[in-house]
Every structure is written in C-alpha cells, then in structure tokens.
Specification:
Number of strands: 26
Number of helices: 26
Strand order of the largest sheet: 3-1-4-5-6-7-8
CATH architecture of the largest domain: Alpha-Beta Horseshoe
CATH superfamily of the largest domain: tm_1862 like domain
Oligomer: single chain
Helix content: 25-40%
Strand content: 15-25%
C-alpha cells in the first residue's frame, strides 16, 4: 500500500500539551476514503500535527507517496522546511500544499519553493480527491482538477476550474463520525481541543479577512443539523473540554439556536464540552442576544463579540465593512450588561483612513457606550489571499507593513531549535504615519490596561460620569505621567512599539508568572499586581487635577475601592474588610449595570474575597488568561453580590411550533424594566430558568 501523510501543525497551548485536533486533515482523509480507487491503493498514516524539531517530524515518515500540508500563519515556515527535506529524501513523493496561507496565484511561490508539486487554492476536498485518484493511476498531469496549480516538468500550470460550490457540506463526511480521530480521543486525559464546522461561506467582503475574499464564496452551505448534533454528541462523549466553531457568523441562522440548546443538553448530561467558542455574527441581532444569554447561563461561552473594527465611516468604506448602527450597538451592550453576559468589542489598529484623532474618538465612543468588560485592540495583520494583502490595495492606500516574529498569544514559546514563523502588520498608511502608529499603539495599550485589564475601570468611569471628563483626556494624562512607577509602565509600552518595528513579536514572555506568551497590557497588569500601593497612589496624584476640591475625598474613596478589588498573587484564600465613608462601592458597580445610584454619606463595609493559588503560573492562568474574556479579573465582594442578586433573569423558552414567545425579563430594584424578544425554534427539554444574576457569571 502507498502511504499518504497529512501535516497540519497546530498551536501548543501551555505546558500541558493542549493542542487542536487536525480538523482539515481529518475531513480530507474522511473524504478520500469514500473512493474505492483510493482505498485500494493508499493507506492514510497517523496525522502529524504537533509542532516539533524537523528531525523528529521526519522520523515519522517511511517511504511516503503523498505528503500534504495545510498551511496557516503559524506553521508555514515549518511546513516548507519539512516538505523540502521530504522531497530531498523521497524525490518521487508528491508534495501538496493548501490552506489559508497558500497563495491563490502561486506561480512565484512554487518557483521559489521548487519542491512543491501542487498548490490547492481555497476549498480543497474535491480537488484533493481528484489529485489522489489521478496519482493512483500513475498520472502527474492534473489538468481539469479544480482549484489547483501544478508542476509538469519545468512548467507551472494553473487550472481555472473551480469546485461546485452548490454542493452540500454533507458531501464531505464528518471526520468525527467516520472515526478519523478515534485513535487519539481513545486516550485517557487526552487534552485535545476540537473544531466543528456547521456551515461554510460568508456574505461579507471585509478586505482584511480571508473569508471576505479568500474563501471565494459568499453563499452559505450547511451541514445537516443531525450531523452537527452527532459531531457534538461524539465530542461530548469523548470528554473534549473546548470546542471551537469555525462558522463565520454564528447566531445569524435560526438553527444556531438549536445548536446552542444541544450544547446545553450535552453539558448537563455529560459535563462536556466545558466551553464553546465561536465567531459571532457581524451584525449582532436579537437571536445572538438570546443564544449568548443561554450559553452564558450554562457557563459555556466566555462572552459575545460586538465587533466594530473601526468607528470611522471612512475606514469602514475603505475596508468594505457594514457595521451595526451605533445606537443599536449601545442598546445591545446595555442589554448584555444587565444580564451580566460578558461582552468584548474589537477594534483593528492601522486600517486605511484611520488617524490619531479618529482613533481616539472611536475609543471614546466605545467607552461612552458603557462597555463593561473587554475592548480588544488588534494590530492590522496582513494575510495572503485577502484584499488587504494585494499589491493593488496596498498601493492604493499607501500601506507599508512590518514583518515581525510570530509569538502566538497564550501559546507556548517555540523551542529554540524549531522553525521560526512570522507575520506582517500594518505600520503606515496614507492617513497614518509610522509616528502616528506609535502614538495609537501606546494609546491602545494604556486603554486596555486601565479599562480592559481593570486597573482603572471604575476610576475612569467615575471621573467621566461624575465630572464629565472624556476618556481620551484621562488616558492622555496617564501616558503623560511623570510618576515613577506609571512612567515605567509607559516606557515599557515605548519599548514594545520599538520592538515591533524592529521585528520582535507581539507576545511577551514574563517567565516569573507564565510559560505562555502574554500581551503587553497583560504583562503590565501583572507588574501592577506586584506594585499595587505605588500604582494607585500615583494614579490618584496623576488624575487629581481633574477633580474639584470638594470632591477630593470622594475621589480618594474611588481609588481605594479600585485598589481593594484589584487582584494580587497569594497562596492563601482570604477575605478582606474595608470601611468606606460613603456608598462609593455601590455607585461604582452600578455604573456598568445602567442603574442610577446617587452618592450618599451612607457608610459601607466592603468585604472582598481573594482566592489563593498554588503558584504564580496558576494565578496568571485563572485570574488573567481565563478571566479576561469572562469578565472576572477583579475580586468579588459582598456589595457586588448584593446588587446582582436583586436582578433576576427569567427565561421562558417555548415551543416554536406553537409560535409562543421567548422572553427575557430584566428587572431593576423597582421591577420597572422589561424587554421582550420574538421567538425562535427551541426544544422542550430546556424549559425555564429563574436564577440570581450573579450565578450566571460564576
């Protein structure tokens, strides 16, 4: 039997060896096995998907006939290096490349890497099956095979044929149901994470995204809902803790609600999956509100994305992005806040048309809307096969990029002997000089530290709400600080931007606290936790200039409150008590649940619970990495619990067949608030919930 080897090197996440199963390899393997021509002549070898030294990977190869590589940003260079060595050792082996990183116009790529025999562009199942069937007959002429470029002698030929994009996804067998990963998942405590795909396609044309152009398909195709359920049941039975959904816009389709209910059913029955991560629909809707609420109720999701990318109309036009209206965005944000569903907004720094002024205004708008959890700000990354990655687009908008090391966030550092991977980020456009990019990057890091990492979220919100100072003025004041410790944090942001421009990676290794790469603002968070007294004393001094004399004492209580709930590493679990001369803790908490609270002279006793950790690595993992998206970075207190226990969530999930109503009732202290949403299909096994709000988060 001839041997086929699949290579899909995935990311390692921490010292526990956690890694995604090779989903692409699995679905390709399952599909080619539907052909008797293939099964009679070929044997699929165990998948190669854990990154390693090249020599160790090559030891897995024995007389290969076909070696195929699914390449992405995080494995392209390793794949190229392994493929080159395979071709040198086995000249007759057919080397096939595909995946998001594989160029759709690959002639130059194949000339540079002359060991590659075939490049498959975009969707690959149909093309790969035809390749293997042709090769089984001893044929190396792949004319007529859709979506491929191939080497024939000294020539590189490009086929213009495309697959039948009207075919159902059920044409391709599920790799889970067909047993492709059985030998891996049969292991006790396997530690694998899994990817599922319930549909394929994206109607949006965002210029920075592979879905927008690279997938070549704006029309949705679906996998049968029963097949989706079978996949989820299989993974649940195999105790897969974490499932990532590869859909482009989860929540946009009516059946997504049924998928959410299936996940809840399985978690209640088996305890798995523990978490379900997805890419939410771009235009957040009522259905997404309901699905996210249900998943959060059952602790399945870390939150919901309210993706913005930019608030500039010019930028949105340049990137072909259709954002949800800001008014609707603010309403959804407030609704999620009331339910205590963690939300996180996303902005991309460096898109064409953005300026320092528009960037700060956009962040002001986001924070003014009452964002209570995370604002994630990403550098604009440039991917192959996107409009942003094209020469024409970059020339039009005068885009310059910088090549940096790929230090994958929250993933293990690569062994020094491993192949280094890289990525490209935008550092200059027609509207943004490189100096502007530096300013915007520092400003973004300060914003995420103070707001998203919670180092000053209540301080900023208090000054903005009580005195009317803009968030941007407060963030600028922080960056201009001459106080020693805060100035050292700002200096670290300068060093970080210098490092990026010099080609260093985004992720930083802070070995005292973690064995995975962290974001710059996360490292700053840990440094504050080591220097809390100095930081909060300096924050008071730096921002006091905005405070009228008659509110100085009140402001000092706000600083003390922020300090009291900021986490710090300890081996022991403890409860701390603080006395306040006013109801400042209640006032601060109420800001982000849209509850009007007046500041009074009522004395308040704040009890704060601080969890103990076995070491600093556990502290970073649980208090920072796991807690960031779930909105649980800060320590919990009796006042917070009291406020949230007064808010009830009543879920009445009715049978869609009877066209009854799905209701989400949100009550404040006076039971005056009520929101009602139209129904979608549901199943009768999840009927009714009425629980204190704090249990949703916990």
């Amino acid at each position: 039997m001839k041997r086929i080897y699949f290579n899909e090197f995935n990311l390692l996440m921490g010292s526990g060896g956690i890694v995604y199963l090779p989903f692409v390899s699995g679905i390709l393997s399952a599909y080619i096995k539907t052909s008797s021509v293939v099964t009679e002549k070929f044997e699929v070898m165990p998948f190669i998907f854990v990154p390693d030294k090249i020599e160790n990977i090559l030891e897995k190869y024995h007389d290969p006939s076909i070696a195929c590589f699914s390449i992405s940003m995080w494995n392209e260079q390793l794949s190229l290096a392994v493929a080159k060595r395979i071709k040198a050792a086995y000249p007759d082996c057919l080397i096939v490349f595909g995946g998001a990183q594989c160029p759709h116009q690959p002639e130059e790529y194949m000339r540079t890497n002359d060991f590659i025999d075939i490049c498959v562009r975009a969707e690959g199942e149909e093309a790969f099956l035809k390749i293997v069937e042709e090769f089984a007959q001893g044929n190396r002429n792949f004319s007529g095979v859709p979506n491929v470029a191939y080497r024939l002698g000294d020539d590189i030929l490009v086929n213009i044929e495309v697959p039948n994009y009207d075919r159902s996804l059920d044409s391709f067998p599920s790799p889970y149901i067909s047993g492709e990963f059985e030998y891996l998942l049969a292991q006790e405590n396997h530690g694998y994470q899994a990817i599922v795909e319930t549909n394929r396609g994206c109607p949006f044309l965002c210029t920075f995204c592979y879905w927008g152009k690279g997938g070549n398909n704006t029309k949705y195709r679906f996998r049968d809902i029963n097949t989706v359920f079978a996949d989820l049941e299989y993974l649940s039975s195999k105790k897969v803790e974490y499932i990532f959904n590869a859909d482009s816009n989860f929540g946009m389709h009516r059946r997504d609600y049924d998928i959410a209910l299936k996940l809840i059913e399985l978690k209640k029955k088996n305890g798995y999956p523990e978490k379900f991560r997805t890419c939410w629909g771009k235009n957040t809707s009522e259905r997404i509100f309901k699905i996210a609420s249900l998943l959060q109720l059952h602790a399945l999701d870390k939150g919901v994305t309210l993706a913005r990318q930019s608030n500039s109309e010019l930028v949105l036009k340049n990137i072909k992005r259709d954002n949800i209206k800001l008014e609707a965005y603010e309403f959804l944000e407030k609704s999620f806040n009331k339910l205590q569903v963690p939300i996180y907004a996303e902005l991309i720094l460096g898109l064409p048309g953005e300026t320092v002024e528009s960037w700060k205004q956009g962040i002001d708008q986001m924070l003014n809307a009452g964002l209570n959890n995370q604002l994630f700000i990403y550098q604009a990354e440039v991917y192959p096969n996107t409009e942003l990655g094209s020469v024409e687009y970059q020339e039009k908008f005068k885009i310059l990029t910088t090549k940096i090391k790929l230090n994958e966030i929250h993933c293990s550092p690569r062994d020094a002997a491993w192949t280094r991977e890289f990525q490209h980020i935008v550092t200059q456009t027609y509207s943004m000089s490189c100096a502007d990019w530096r300013v915007m990057t520092k400003y973004s890091l300060a914003t995420m530290l103070l707001h998203s990492m919670k180092a000053g979220i209540y301080v900023l919100a208090y000054i903005h709400k009580r005195i009317g100072v803009s968030y941007s003025a407060l963030i600028d004041a922080f960056l201009d600080s001459k106080s020693p410790f805060i100035a050292s944090l700002v200096a670290s942001f300068d060093a970080y931007t210098d490092g990026l421009l010099a080609g260093e990676g985004r992720g930083l290794l802070y070995a005292e606290y973690s064995d995975v790469y962290l974001e710059a603002e996360e490292v700053a968070f840990l440094q504050i936790s080591e220097n809390r007294p100095a930081f909060f004393a300096e924050l008071y001094d730096d921002l006091s200039k905005f405070i009228p004399p008659d509110l100085k004492k009140e402001f000092s209580e706000v600083i003390r409150f922020q300090d009291s709930i900021f986490p710090q590493y300890s081996n022991d679990s403890k409860t701390f008590s603080f006395k306040f001369n006013s109801n400042i803790p209640e006032y601060c908490y109420s800001i982000f649940i849209n509850k009007e609270t007046e500041i009074s002279s009522d004395e308040t006793e704040l009890e704060v619970f601080s969890e103990g950790y076995q070491d600093k690595y556990e502290f970073t993992k649980k208090r920072l990495i796991w807690a960031r998206k779930s909105g649980t970075i800060l320590l919990t207190s009796n006042v917070e619990k009291s406020i949230k226990e007064k808010i009830l969530i009543n879920f009445d999930i009715s049978d869609y067949a009877n066209e009854k109503t799905f209701k989400v009732s949100l009550f404040d202290d006076n039971l005056t608030k009520f929101e009602k949403f139209s129904s979608t299909k549901s199943r009768p096994d999840v009927s009714e919930h009425s629980i204190p709000i704090h249990q949703v988060r916990d």
